[in-house]
Amino acid sequence: MNKKRFNPSSSMVFPGRYGRRSLLALAAAVCIGATAGFRCGKKPTPPAAPATSGVPHGPAKSLRQQIEKVTGGHTRIVWARDYGEGKDTFANGTKLALMGLDTRMASAERVLSGTRGNFSRPLLSPDGATVVCSRRTATGDPKVPQWQSEILAVPWEGGPLQSVRSGYAVDVWQEPQTGRTWVYAFTTLRDGISSNPEGYRMVRFRLSEPDKEEVIWEKGLMSGDNIQLNRAGTAASGLIPWPNAGTFDFASGRFIRYRNGCWPSLAPDDSGVVWVFDGTHENLRLFLPGVEGDWRVPMGKLESLKGKAAYHPRWSNHPRVVCFTGPHPVKVSQGSGRVSVMLARFNAGLTAFEESVSLRNPAAEPDCYPDVWVAGGGEVHLDLASVGSKRVRELAAAAPAKAVTAWDAAAESLCFVWQRANTNNAITGEKRESSVTPHRHARFGPRFDMLTQGGYFVLDDASAKSIRKALTSGLWAMEIAITPLAEGSATPQVIFRAGPDLEVQQSLHDFIIRIAGKDWQLGAGLSAGQTTHLAFGRSSTRDGPPTVWLNGQSQEARPVDTGLRAPLAPADTTEVQFGARLEGAAAWTGRLETIAFHASAPDPSRVAAHAAWWQQQLTGSTPPARTVVRARLEEASPRATPESIGTYRRSWTSALYKKSALISGPDPGATFGVAHWTILDGQPVTGPPGKPGEERELILEPMAGHPEMDSEHGSEEILPDGVPLFLDTGQPGA
Q1: What does residue 185 show for φ and ψ, rounded to 5 degrees?
Q2: pLDDT of 75-91, one tens digit each?
Q3: C-alpha 367: how far from its chain's center?
Q4: Which residues are paired to 137 by β-bridges?
Q5: I need a labelling partner for 420 at 20 to 30 A (CA). Which of 85, 356, 542, 571 fits?
Q6: Cis peptide leading into residue 243 (ω within 30°)
Q7: Which pLDDT belongs to residue 59?
Q8: Tens digit of pLDDT for each residue in 401-458?
Q9: Contact 146, 191 (CB under 8 A)
Q10: Please, what is the end-to-end C-alpha distance for the chain in angstroms?
């Protein structure tokens, strides 16, 4: 590959006959066109028609005219095209071409660099004059590749790629006060993954001084898809890593998690609106800053997608113009042929798309990773008063609710914290994130809690190590909210285990806490579906009973009478996990949330406050309505395979049923859709949907009551419009 050291002072950066000042003047001159029909932050004066415009007047017939009809004005688009086997959705290979399209140039799409190679995440500079991308190179074992990455740049008019420095570029941002342009990048990439790039350290630098970097974030693993800054540069969308989607708050140093999902994107103005892509790859979930609630914008209904999936969604520099690729099949890793770059325009409220266009890829090779620049887009602002669904706007306008005690684990001596899957589970003192990984059939519930039904959750290595150390070195305390989903048995089942030094078990209606091999019984009155707040800690006296609180009330633990209660056999393994022992032994079925483990004695005042908070949560919560129905299968979507879903570990398949008999609960209607789990923990799940004509009993809850499913891989493609969708809540594989 022809490569030169990048020199931003070179005239190549501001190509052709324009030069930098002329190009900026051109961008300003077309602000009226770029913002036609949009709310603009500044009222521009009417300019003379740009002499460089090659777009004819009249109805939008040409592709360039159709693009400008969507974007409002002069537009540039850059992307990568796969000339390999057509399966390189994440731009890992070496048979890619760097492509571009300019609506004010007579040619249609063109190759920006004459050689083929790796072009990962091409990005347009804020002035649209330069393309920055990265070249990823894999060495070693193809199954566990080692990645090197180099940042490259090329002027918009094309030419030889120029080397900037090592690293992986994730965004290019312009400082509003000075006009200086910064490249945001990972310094190194994590080895061992074969899809989306991930890194531990994000820096920024100027193209003119690439060796002078500023550290922006180094608080754990981040995904490169999709980091995008707001206009002020105070925040960026991101994953820490996938599927934990949210925004980096650079001022406070906090990551604000919105939900599990992929391809988050932050509006390019300063409105703070953020989206998270759901697991079907057909819907955007949008959020207003500081508002509890979201709204859905379906993409699958766009004519250009024809009900198929989209990939690579990204906001342009204009807050109402977005880009993506499609149509993709469910099994994206099998290749999908004519996948094209697409553009769409939001309506004023960002509740639907009102216009879209496909670049109609003339070749059979698929496109990936588009980025879009619209002249004048950097001057446009969203009107937050009109953004969002009616319910979300009402929530935003409502007076703040009366303050209540929040669940907030003390930062001091914190070893592990996990409120829910959609919260910030950060150990701030150590600059790390606590996490849990579901295994076998374990998954997340509708409160983003841990659902251990048929599986268990394993803690991250750093948290497990910290807990084991606390158990052997001094005082410690644990807090956890526990909801059994089945009646307990006389044989104890393991709710939590931290090696041989600590186990929390359920036996019939009681808790058993095993500390250093000694069992202590706690009468808890446990019953299926009822949540209990448990807090306990090591005794201040050697071999004494633990100090325990149930729902905020101090309790006395007594030794287990082995004549009445047969204990679990000892186990010497050192795993730290929820819901079972190693490999699923002594499995327990239930939900777990609001968990903290401290290397210090329990704080009674905090225990009481958290128990009171929990009582308020339970009083105001309503579980999804449950329906039991007998129904006949009419049609089912094709099952995905573990290989076809990329980095996802779980997938569901939609099926269309006709009701035979309503057994209990609300009537789902004569015809309805059901989402069945078909892959869990990366392995196929046996069971429904089965073959058309089969009849079965189903335990269903409305999919709308399960927001955790939005981030899971799945497909609704066979379901007709208007057919309600339910989740099969029975035991997967049964």
Answers
A1: -155, 155
A2: 999 999 998 888 888 88
A3: 22
A4: 148
A5: 571
A6: yes
A7: 56
A8: 444 457 889 999 999 999 999 888 999 878 788 999 999 999 999 999 999 999 999 9
A9: yes
A10: 55
Tens digit of each residue's pLDDT (9 = 90 or more) over 354-405 = 999 999 876 778 999 999 999 999 999 999 999 999 999 988 887 554 444 5
The rounded distance, in Å, linking the Cα atoms of 258 and 287 is 8
Lowest model confidence (mean pLDDT) among 64-73, 250-259, 441-450, 498-507: 250-259
Q: Which two tokens stand for residue 558?
A: 């007594």
* Gap between the Cα atoms of 298 and 307, Å rounded: 10
What confidence tens digit (pLDDT) does each residue in 144-173 have? Answer: 888 899 999 999 988 889 999 999 999 999
Furthest-apart CA atoms within the chain: distance in Å: 94
Using CB atoms within 10 A of its CB, is residue 559 exposed (0-12), middle (13-18) or buried (19+)? exposed
Tokens of 420: 């829910």
Tokens (6 digits) for 367? 């496109």
Of the candidate CATH numbers 3.40.50.720, 2.60.120.200, 3.30.930.10, 3.40.50.300, the domain formed by 414-620 belongs to 2.60.120.200
* pLDDT tens track for 226-249: 999 999 999 999 998 888 899 999
Cis peptide before 226 (omega within 30 of 0): yes
User: Structural domain boundaries of the chain?
Assistant: 3-397, 414-620, 627-728
3-state secondary structure string across 647-670: CCCCEEEEEEEEEEEEEECCCCCC
Tokens of 23: 């190009």
Measured in whole angstroms, the distance separating CA 178 from the mean position of its chain's CA atoms is: 33
Instruction: Say if CB 473 and CB 492 are below 8 A apart.
Output: no
On whether the 3-397 domain is CATH 3.40.50.920, my answer is no
d(CA 8, CA 12): 8
Of the candidate CATH numbers 3.40.190, 1.20.5, 1.10.1740, 2.40.50, the domain formed by 627-728 belongs to 2.40.50
> In the structure, what pLDDT confidence band is assigned to residue 335 with cuts at 50, 70 and 90?
low
**Cα–Cα dist 708/726, whole Å:** 13
Average pLDDT, the chain: 87
